[in-house]
């Protein structure tokens, strides 16, 4: 497992999306019942953004500086974290925060409006439960491991972090394979499958594994026909790509994590102190 060989060049985070994501922001600049408060490099935001696009729910994007939190954001999200939704179809407007909660809300909303879904049908509760097991692993294990690995400064800790991250991916693959055996597969892992909840939950971190972790930690993702095919379908999915910025944005914005600068973020501070993610 390779370790970091780059030096901290003092690059700052980006405040505005680039590439395809920039174009998507421009297409969603007019007022809607739902406003997504977003940070352009935040993977938790990208989860919600992909869901809004896939579920075809009308929305507006409001890009904010996550380190200089506007009052509008603080009114929606008590910790000032993105993503946050402002729901203007209520009077006064209401708010939601936390990416997993927002995803559940959007799934419910779509069931009554666009009739699109990120989950197996209600007629197959066991398949839906398997998806939730996959989701639990992503949220509870894979995401925190990503940050521990990226923020590790000691070479031995970086090697251990890399192994832990790859183990987390291997466990997720095992859960996918279980769903193959028991319900015929879920999400994009299934041949001919549609974009699913767990694809959206894990995709932003796997994207950053291909650029941020590769650049700063020398990570090479596991290889194999099934995994390669799934990852390609996910990262090249037209909906997912619409929420992706250029590689430069991610490398610049995550340099502060890679060198574990003080007060990089509430997430980084939680990892440094051994607390759960905020």
Summarize the structure.
With 278 residues, the protein is α+β, with helices and mostly antiparallel strands. Helices cover 55% and strands 6% of the residues. Strands 2-1-3-4 form a 4-stranded mixed beta sheet.
Report what the structure shows.
By secondary structure, the chain is an alpha+beta fold. The protein is built from 12 helices and 4 strands. It has a 4-stranded mixed beta sheet with strand order 2-1-3-4. Helix 2 links the parallel strand 1 (34-38) and strand 2. Helix 2 packs antiparallel against helix 7 (197-217) and helix 5 packs antiparallel against helix 6 (155-183). It is globular, with a radius of gyration of 18 Å.
pLDDT averaged over residues? 96
Q: Could you describe the largest sheet, including whether it forms a barrel? A: 4 strands, mixed
Strand percent estimate: 5-15%
State the helicity in percent bands: 55-70%
Total beta strand runs: 4
Which sequence of strands runs across the widest sheet? Answer: 2-1-3-4
In DSSP terms (H or I, runs of 4 or more residues), the helix count works out at 12
Q: For the CA atoms, what is the radius of gyration? A: 18 Å
Residue ranges: pLDDT <50 for 5 or more in a row?
none
Inertia-based shape: globular
Measure the end-to-end span: 29 Å
- Spell the H/E element sequence: HEHEHEEHHHHHHHHH
Structural class: alpha+beta
């Amino acid at each position: 497992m390779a370790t970091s060989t780059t030096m901290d060049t003092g690059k700052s985070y980006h405040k505005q999306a680039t590439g395809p994501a920039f174009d998507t922001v421009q297409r969603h600049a007019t007022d809607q019942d739902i406003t997504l408060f977003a940070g352009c490099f935040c993977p938790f935001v990208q989860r919600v953004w992909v869901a809004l696009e896939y579920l075809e729910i009308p929305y507006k994007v409001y890009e904010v500086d996550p380190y200089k939190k506007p009052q509008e954001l603080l009114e929606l999200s008590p910790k000032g974290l993105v993503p946050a939704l402002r729901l203007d179809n209520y009077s006064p407007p209401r708010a939601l925060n936390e990416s997993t909660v927002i995803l559940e809300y959007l799934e419910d909303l779509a069931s009554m409006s666009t009739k699109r879904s990120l989950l197996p049908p209600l007629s197959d509760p066991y398949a839906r439960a398997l998806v939730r097991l996959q989701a639990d692993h992503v949220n509870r294990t894979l995401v925190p491991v990503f940050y521990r690995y990226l923020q590790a400064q000691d070479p031995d800790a970086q090697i251990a972090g890399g192994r832990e991250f790859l183990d987390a991916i291997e466990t997720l693959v095992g859960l996918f394979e279980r769903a193959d055996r028991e319900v015929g597969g879920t999400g994009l892992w299934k041949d001919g499958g549609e974009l699913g909840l767990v694809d959206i939950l894990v995709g932003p971190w796997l994207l950053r594994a291909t650029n941020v972790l590769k650049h700063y930690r020398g990570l090479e993702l596991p290889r194999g026909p099934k995994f390669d095919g799934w990852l390609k379908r996910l990262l090249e999915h037209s909906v997912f790509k619409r929420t992706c910025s250029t590689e430069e944005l991610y490398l610049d914005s995550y340099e502060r994590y890679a060198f574990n600068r003080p007060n990089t973020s509430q997430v980084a501070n939680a990892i440094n102190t051994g607390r759960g993610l905020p």
